[in-house]
Amino acid sequence: MSRSETVTAPMDDGGWEPLRLAATAALANAYVPYSKFPVGAAARLEDGSIVSGCNVENASYGLTLCAECTMIGAARMNGGGLITAFYCVDAQGEILMPCGRCRQILNEFSTAQTQLMTPSGVKSMDQVLPDAFGPRDLARIAASGAEH
Ligand SMILES: [Zn+2]
Fold first, then answer.
1. Residue 57 marked in a binding site
2. Centre of ligand 1 from the C-alpha of residue 55, in Å
3. Domains of the chain, residue spans
4. What is the whole-number distance in angstroms between the Cα of residue 145 and the centre of ligand 1?
5. In CATH, which superfamily holds the domain spanning 12-144?
6. CA angle 30, 52, 138 (to 5 degrees)
7. d(Cα 53, Cα 24) in Å, to the nearest integer?
8. Is position 147 annotated as part of the catalytic site?
9. CA of 69 relative to ligand 1 center, distance in Å
Protein backbone atom coordinates (compact mmCIF):
# COMPACT_ATOMS: atom_id res chain seq x y z
CA MET A 1 0.00 0.00 0.00
CA SER A 2 1.35 3.41 -0.84
CA ARG A 3 1.19 6.17 1.69
CA SER A 4 -1.32 8.10 -0.37
CA GLU A 5 -3.83 5.26 0.05
CA THR A 6 -3.68 5.54 3.80
CA VAL A 7 -6.00 7.84 5.66
CA THR A 8 -4.49 9.05 8.88
CA ALA A 9 -6.79 10.11 11.66
CA PRO A 10 -5.71 13.33 13.33
CA MET A 11 -4.18 12.93 16.75
CA ASP A 12 -6.24 14.54 19.50
CA ASP A 13 -5.05 17.96 20.64
CA GLY A 14 -3.56 16.57 23.83
CA GLY A 15 -1.01 14.66 21.81
CA TRP A 16 0.37 17.76 20.15
CA GLU A 17 0.96 19.91 23.24
CA PRO A 18 3.97 17.94 24.59
CA LEU A 19 5.54 18.18 21.13
CA ARG A 20 4.89 21.91 20.91
CA LEU A 21 6.47 22.38 24.34
CA ALA A 22 9.52 20.24 23.50
CA ALA A 23 10.05 22.08 20.20
CA THR A 24 9.74 25.43 21.96
CA ALA A 25 12.20 24.38 24.67
CA ALA A 26 14.69 23.30 22.00
CA LEU A 27 14.81 26.87 20.68
CA ALA A 28 17.02 27.82 23.64
CA ASN A 29 19.78 25.54 22.34
CA ALA A 30 19.82 26.88 18.80
CA TYR A 31 23.15 28.20 17.51
CA VAL A 32 22.15 30.95 15.11
CA PRO A 33 24.78 33.74 15.15
CA TYR A 34 24.27 34.45 11.44
CA SER A 35 20.56 34.20 10.67
CA LYS A 36 19.28 34.97 14.18
CA PHE A 37 16.46 32.57 13.26
CA PRO A 38 16.26 29.84 15.89
CA VAL A 39 14.21 26.76 15.10
CA GLY A 40 13.07 24.02 17.45
CA ALA A 41 11.74 20.66 16.34
CA ALA A 42 10.30 17.72 18.23
CA ALA A 43 8.96 14.31 17.37
CA ARG A 44 7.23 11.49 19.16
CA LEU A 45 8.72 8.10 18.34
CA GLU A 46 6.84 4.85 18.12
CA ASP A 47 7.83 3.90 21.69
CA GLY A 48 6.18 7.10 22.94
CA SER A 49 9.42 8.94 23.69
CA ILE A 50 9.87 12.53 22.56
CA VAL A 51 13.06 13.77 20.94
CA SER A 52 13.91 17.33 20.00
CA GLY A 53 16.48 19.30 18.06
CA CYS A 54 17.57 22.82 17.19
CA ASN A 55 19.27 24.38 14.22
CA VAL A 56 23.06 24.71 14.34
CA GLU A 57 24.60 27.19 11.94
CA ASN A 58 28.12 27.26 10.59
CA ALA A 59 30.39 30.02 9.29
CA SER A 60 30.41 27.99 6.11
CA TYR A 61 26.69 28.64 5.68
CA GLY A 62 25.97 25.59 3.55
CA LEU A 63 26.97 23.32 6.39
CA THR A 64 24.20 24.57 8.65
CA LEU A 65 22.14 21.83 10.29
CA CYS A 66 18.39 22.27 10.46
CA ALA A 67 16.59 21.44 13.72
CA GLU A 68 15.25 18.26 12.11
CA CYS A 69 18.82 17.05 11.51
CA THR A 70 19.89 17.36 15.13
CA MET A 71 16.52 15.92 16.24
CA ILE A 72 17.08 12.81 14.14
CA GLY A 73 20.61 12.57 15.51
CA ALA A 74 19.20 12.72 19.04
CA ALA A 75 16.66 10.06 18.15
CA ARG A 76 19.38 7.74 16.86
CA MET A 77 21.53 8.38 19.93
CA ASN A 78 18.59 7.41 22.12
CA GLY A 79 17.85 4.10 20.46
CA GLY A 80 16.21 5.22 17.24
CA GLY A 81 12.69 4.41 16.18
CA LEU A 82 10.14 5.67 13.73
CA ILE A 83 8.39 9.03 14.03
CA THR A 84 4.70 9.03 14.82
CA ALA A 85 4.26 12.80 15.08
CA PHE A 86 6.36 15.88 14.30
CA TYR A 87 6.19 19.57 15.30
CA CYS A 88 8.49 22.50 14.43
CA VAL A 89 8.43 26.11 15.67
CA ASP A 90 10.16 29.44 15.15
CA ALA A 91 11.20 31.97 17.80
CA GLN A 92 7.64 33.29 18.05
CA GLY A 93 6.19 29.83 18.51
CA GLU A 94 4.71 29.80 15.04
CA ILE A 95 4.51 26.41 13.35
CA LEU A 96 7.16 25.96 10.66
CA MET A 97 7.10 23.66 7.67
CA PRO A 98 10.22 21.49 7.35
CA CYS A 99 12.38 22.56 4.39
CA GLY A 100 12.53 20.24 1.40
CA ARG A 101 15.73 18.55 2.54
CA CYS A 102 14.30 17.91 5.98
CA ARG A 103 11.11 16.43 4.56
CA GLN A 104 13.34 13.81 2.95
CA ILE A 105 15.21 13.29 6.23
CA LEU A 106 11.94 12.88 8.14
CA ASN A 107 10.63 10.52 5.46
CA GLU A 108 13.48 8.11 6.16
CA PHE A 109 12.12 7.59 9.68
CA SER A 110 8.40 7.89 8.97
CA THR A 111 5.51 5.54 8.25
CA ALA A 112 2.18 5.96 6.53
CA GLN A 113 0.77 6.88 9.93
CA THR A 114 3.30 9.64 10.70
CA GLN A 115 1.59 12.98 11.25
CA LEU A 116 3.15 16.40 10.84
CA MET A 117 1.79 19.61 12.29
CA THR A 118 1.99 22.21 9.52
CA PRO A 119 0.89 25.85 9.18
CA SER A 120 -2.17 24.51 7.34
CA GLY A 121 -3.01 21.74 9.80
CA VAL A 122 -2.08 18.11 10.39
CA LYS A 123 -0.74 16.31 7.33
CA SER A 124 0.70 12.92 6.49
CA MET A 125 4.26 12.44 5.26
CA ASP A 126 2.90 11.62 1.80
CA GLN A 127 1.07 14.94 1.71
CA VAL A 128 4.22 16.93 2.46
CA LEU A 129 6.52 14.79 0.28
CA PRO A 130 4.42 13.08 -2.40
CA ASP A 131 5.83 10.10 -4.26
CA ALA A 132 8.96 10.29 -2.14
CA PHE A 133 12.14 8.47 -2.97
CA GLY A 134 13.01 6.30 -0.02
CA PRO A 135 14.44 3.10 1.42
CA ARG A 136 11.89 0.98 -0.44
CA ASP A 137 13.28 2.17 -3.78
CA LEU A 138 16.74 0.95 -2.84
CA ALA A 139 15.34 -2.35 -1.55
CA ARG A 140 13.35 -2.86 -4.76
CA ILE A 141 16.43 -2.52 -6.97
CA ALA A 142 18.55 -4.67 -4.64
CA ALA A 143 15.85 -7.38 -4.67
CA SER A 144 15.61 -7.32 -8.45
CA GLY A 145 19.32 -8.04 -8.87
CA ALA A 146 19.50 -5.31 -11.51
CA GLU A 147 23.07 -4.32 -12.26
CA HIS A 148 24.83 -1.98 -14.61
ZN1 LIG B 1 15.62 21.76 6.91
1. yes
2. 9
3. 12-144
4. 34
5. Cytidine Deaminase, domain 2 (3.40.140.10)
6. 110
7. 10
8. no
9. 7
**Catalytic, out of 68, 94, 108, 147:** 68
Q: Kindly report the CA angle at 122 between 117 and 126, in degrees rounded to 5?
A: 95
Q: What is the pTM of this model?
A: 0.88
Q: Is 129 exposed, middle or buried (0-12, 13-18, 19+ CB in 10 A)?
A: buried
Distance from the CA of 72 to the center of ligand 1, in angstroms?
12
pLDDT in tens, 60-96: 999 999 999 999 999 999 999 999 999 999 999 999 9
Structure confidence at residue 146 (pLDDT): 84
Q: Determine if residue 99 is labeled as part of a ligand binding site.
A: yes
Angle between helices 100-108 and 67-77 (to 10 degrees): 20
Flag whether 102 is marked binding. Answer: yes
Q: Are 57 and 33 in contact (CB under 8 A)?
A: yes
